[in-house]
């Protein structure tokens, strides 16, 4: 409660000094908060370049509200506390109107208190573990029910997998996702003994023991499937070991949630053909707007560069923001937020993304098989799935829902009909 | 279920043959058009069976084309064709029935039918009957794969029938093995099954265990009302690891032998339900802020008969003791389960031994990787007493050299052969440059060498990022290093790891040779022991230091190529190995190559051992290994093999 | 005694005066109370920098004065942050949970509150039970005590083991590095009960405090300044007395000090533990300003950077450590902030975000090679103070170090 007051006071303060200046301000500033150095630079630099491309394209179309857009790029250097510092700097020193940024969950958690205190607006483009809802954040990446759950369903229904190995890097996204999946699988009648969980450090390279363990799971005659939330570089060693052990996708399929075109460009995929990944976007999506997007990206960054899912998330998020600001006639955060609900924008994979009152998108879920050229062959595409901030498969969060439009609450307990808190849990 | 399906299929077969003698494959496909378009494993069965049972000569061909993702659907009329992709988004279509080309179409007017791997497995099973006696041995092997992936009772007869005529001895062996496995699982005759189990007793294959284990699946049930024929394994007491108290009680509730007990949450809900005017059971609500107060209020409500009875006396743990629970095999035949138990016991023992051996191989492999990463450090740190924090970056430099060479030379074998000496040359030069420019000025100031080389390390890491980008780069092993050396289904090790092991041995030999048999080695040892004396004997210590440092760095470069082949090439490759390398050298004992070897062996074995104890958390293994090393150093500060006369840290 | 102490060490007085002036200046210019020339984010940066200066002083004490190059002091710094962070998280969550549960039909029981707090804090990492390490998290006084006790105890145990078996020099450095790596890896595990990689977040929101961040940031700024002043005074007092002479003696020649009858291990252990406690306090002040503490903070690289700061600032002089930490960390954040225009060198464009680390690394090599006394050495130049010319190779950070003749024997 006290925090609410303090943030209201700050908001009022900001409104008193900042708002009049903002409306008249040209150019409109767009903050880009992606690590350009450190461990996460591998993934995040691409998103910074995407944002610069999108802003350039928008300016070529005449900008926004009669103003040029100007990107303010800062480098939080994969240092989580620095994310909070840079976010504060963007909002108070540079007075940006919106921030596009973050990759890891921990960096988002670091930024949240600052964004909420200063009433900023953040677009977060990466698939994440859910269990969070902030008034000031739009989650354009997949929630677990838009990636993990459909992929698990695919394993259960289409591949007939009866025994699961949940392999992950030891951090919050795999931990929470695997927790949700474990609970989900048990509800689907999979015994606890048939779920093998393993966590490895970031950048792990010695996979022989783990791959052997997974192969040994097949000893009780059940079909084994691997759900991988292994992050980043570690995948390279993992897939190399899988290939060396001769694990074919027909015997033990692997579905990955963190392996995209970008990660595959680091290894030879001939031995991995048939293994799976679940995303909301693949570069191989056969639509006209995607062809255009890929072409613009390659023209800008070079022929050998690939596009990936978080890039599409930024593409949708940025365009929605532009449309919402145009509809609201201002870049004022509260006005834009109200205008965001129900915003529609075509997905690159076909169909339309809709912004829901819980700040998540409704997007289709795609499952692709790895091909020899490092691209994915899309073998399954669902209709749009609405993102769910609070998973239905954990007892504590099944009763929670998020609705910022009507209820004005991100953590609403549907049983007691009360709002647990209006700030997010970080 | 499967029997029903066969019956239906047979019926369908009869119908189609009777009614549509002149049916085409296309018409069968069109009859199942929607399920084929949907392509879901759940519903596709009928379509596959219809094609397989159509009796048409093209059936096998159609199924194979379908599984290979070569089936296309024409946009306008929805007809299916075999398609061959040509340039410029054109696809040439062939009619299934006639096999004739029907012309080219643009991809936009076509829909490619992409069966997922679940559907492909079903197609594979349907193909078994055609492929088991296919003239092409590859097809016959595929059929066996399909049987093993989804074994079924109805496959046993065709498999047996195909064995006598099998010309290929290897395939014949495999067929017989699969036949034994299917017999175990599906033969109607118990004696035949027991014979099959005894035939294959002691087999280490995963498939053998995968056949035996389902025979031994048990469930826990209430003893009351169990038919006398049930194949009981044992009696289970509630509280047994296999049967929790709550689970036992739930079974009683399900059987109507016990009442559900409202838990604290449910009791709270009932209290709220019966509250009125801020009072429940006469107690003001605001007083109910402890569990004891709530329990008291609930008991009062229960006494009034308003809510289900609940008291601590009727605890589930008391109730469950009044009933018997037993563990029952799903398999009805006691003789079969007994034979299977026996066979499995024997296998488990052998699997355990083999797993230990496999773990040993993994440990050996990890040790050889650590050794390779540390051997260069053992030279610079151990022999020269120079702390080189940039050692990891030399490893990285070697890996990137390997990557660069592969960009120029496409042939993987040749490129590795070029990359190894080139990596040595590049890192040798870098090492010599560093020694000349920096380290030379810092001899006798080991702590400052550490810091200066650290500065070089972060600069080099960032430089690599600026040049090569932050993405991991591919360094692909030659084809002959793909795959693994497989002893049996438990013990296997990838060829690339064997190659690294061999490389580590070569370097051990090389190091020993250089140090013991060459002029350079002699001079190095002399300079290490007493530089002044060595200088007066006509040895130039400056030159020796430079060469030794270059040698150490060069070997790090080669290690980089090897590590890049087995893991990844990124700018952070080196920093992943630097701490481990230091540990290896320090634990082993400074200044002694055998010590480094012992250190690497110890760290590798230890890490694998801890991983084995705690398989779900690899991170914990690394943590505890480091803690162990810290403690180990306390007791043997000079490492496993200590040089006499040199205190640690001098 | 006190007079003579200050009189003997005028630099302490100068330092404290400058610090007070600086604190006053920032206060006047800040958003919270002053005229708003300095943004809140910069006040936080300055406050954090002072905490870094404090740990740099500790590092100087252990390395510059006692000669132990510890590459693990950020472990203590991080532990301090974790200890205070546990209370901050617990208390903030408790207020939220109590507010929420009070809306229910029944007043919450004690167990319900604790369970709800657990779900809130650990729900993020897929758990809900309170691990044992959180036993005292509900008490500010106990957690504050732990800020000093936990790092102190870890240092005591580790130091006792290490010094007892006479691990010195480079070995000790690597061992301390292993310690911080092990601790970081341990905390990375979610099973350790401190939320794994996520760490403790939202620490900038003080529970029950309604003041805006612009004011809170100043409170922490003052607290950091006070802690730095006290820490500096303590360090200066320690190194000026007999104790200081002994530890300098240990740095320059441990064996001789031991032969003189001093228990070298006790002295080393005392300094090691004391600096760990100072580091813990610095961390406890740092992380509420940073907002989040997580295992990445105590990765070995952080402690190595600490050594870099002290080396660039100038070892063996306390103000050198402060200058080094402040200078390098501020310049670093300035360069990585993306505010500096790119430098075009013909075909090559130098983007400072990319090249700063290289500049830092190389400048570090240059300082080690050519200016072992760091930035602090400039003061000597300015005062015209020089080391006696020994006509030999440069061996140590200052004149008291090993002599050439001894070193080459």
From TrEMBL, chain A:
Positions in coiled-coil regions: none
Q: So where does this one cross the membrane?
A: none
Q: Does the keyword field hold Signal?
A: yes
Q: Superkingdom of the source?
A: Bacteria
Alphabetized, the UniProt keywords read:
Signal
Q: Where is the signal peptide?
A: 1-23
Q: Report the protein name in the record.
A: Amino acid/amide ABC transporter substrate-binding protein, HAAT family
Native organism: Ruegeria marina
Automatic annotation (TrEMBL), chain B:
Q: Where is the signal peptide?
A: 1-20
- Give the main location: membrane
Does Ribosomal protein show up as a keyword for this record?
Answer: no
Q: What is the name of this protein? A: Amino acid/amide ABC transporter membrane protein 1, HAAT family
- Spell out the molecular function terms from Gene Ontology: transmembrane transporter activity
Q: How does it sit in the membrane?
A: Multi-pass membrane protein
Its transmembrane ranges are: 363-387, 416-434, 495-515, 546-566, 578-606, 618-635
Automatic annotation (TrEMBL), chain C:
Q: Name one GO cellular component term.
A: plasma membrane
Give the record's membrane topology.
Multi-pass membrane protein
Q: Where are the transmembrane segments?
A: 71-90, 140-163, 170-188, 219-239, 266-286, 292-311, 318-335, 355-382
Q: Where in the cell is it found?
A: Cell membrane
Any idea which GO molecular function terms this record carries?
Answer: branched-chain amino acid transmembrane transporter activity
Question: Which InterPro entries does this entry report, sorted A to Z?
Answer: ABC_transp_permease, ABC_transptr_urea_perm_UrtC, LivM-like
Q: What is this protein called?
A: Amino acid/amide ABC transporter membrane protein 2, HAAT family
- Superkingdom per UniProt: Bacteria
Q: Which UniProt keywords are given for this protein, alphabetically ordered?
A: Cell membrane, Membrane, Transmembrane, Transmembrane helix
